[in-house]
Amino acid sequence: MRKYILKRILISIVILFFVGFLIYALMRCLPTSYIENMARQKSMQPGSKSFEEWMAQLTTMYNMDKSIIPGYFAWLGNALRGQFGDSWFYTVPVLEKFNDCIWLSFAMGGIAFLLEVLIAIPLGIIAATKQYSRADYTISILALAGISLPTFFFASLLKLVFSVKLGWFDLFGLVGRNYNQLSAWGQFLDKAHHLVLPVVTLVVISVGSLMRYTRTNMLEVLNADYIRTARAKGLSERKVVYHHAFRNTLIPLVTIIGGSLPGLFSGALITETLFAIPGIGYISYQAMIAGDIPFSMFYLVFLSVLTLLGNLIADILYAVVDPRVRIA
């Protein structure tokens, strides 16, 4: 297992190198950029230099005068030293801006993912063990409704009911009007109160797919020959379902759980925008449409690292839940 993990890590490093190069090349080929916008604004000022002169000056200032390959290796050398430069759009160091907004998105995504697992897996098991029953039909309808609901529609519906009609929550924002007058614990509760509707939105729109996936895999396992053998030997239905069937159902679920790691940090662009939550999803989107190459490069490469790490964790979890992998 140690050699396998080491081999996967080395392969992941090679993959990350080429993925980083592709991201850098795409960033350099954007049809517009922050440098062009800045040069255009400065050239329109009275008595200013021409657009071409400002472009040449700003390109040299931001080290964009190199071609793609030398530019990528220059960026890679700085990245290995932990230097990702300053954000062009936010005019602060990339790591500082990233650190300011990532933990808010991580808290939202982590809470939503935990609730999703706690809700979807048990309901999926119930739907599979009571196939074609009223409970199965009810859970399937709820799952399909969650899958079908667009994020913007459901979030707007929550705001209409709980913010406009009932007045239980604010329409948008992360803090209330009297936030600065509250104690530390009161400020924490105020932020938690403002995150209720965004988290509910994330849970409802994502729980359906995992619920259906759990039900489908559980039904496949329950129809296997060894499950019928276990029942014929006189084992209780609870032990057959939760000890034998569910353990084998976990094998495909590991793929979903391992692949969810990037989603915990990527942010939820639509949800964060609708509720005016300054998370990493909305912040990175604003940086990308402005042509902010330093911030966009760091964010996309960070997600690539998380994707490779999630795949590695999934492979390790395979060995935990499936003894055949350890034997192999």
Outline the structure in words:
With 328 residues, this protein is mostly helical. The protein contains 16 helices and no strands. The protein has helices at residues 2-28, 34-43, 51-61, 68-80, 94-129, 134-148, 151-165, 184-194, 196-222, 225-232, 237-259, 261-266, 269-274, 280-289, 293-321, 323-327. The chain starts with a helix and ends with a helix. The model has no long low-confidence stretch (mean pLDDT 82).
Average pLDDT for all residues: 82
The end-to-end span amounts to: 10 Å
Largest sheet: none
SSE succession: HHHHHHHHHHHHHHHH
Coarse morphology: globular
Strand content: under 5%
Structural class comes to mainly alpha
Radius of gyration: 25 Å
| Poorly predicted segments | none
Tally of DSSP helical segments? 16
Provide key terms for this protein.
mainly alpha; 328 residues
Summarize the structure.
With 328 residues, the chain is mostly helical. 77% of the residues lie in helices and 0% in strands.
Secondary structure topology:
Elements: H1 2-28, H2 34-43, H3 51-61, H4 68-80, H5 94-129, H6 134-148, H7 151-165, H8 184-194, H9 196-222, H10 225-232, H11 237-259, H12 261-266, H13 269-274, H14 280-289, H15 293-321, H16 323-327
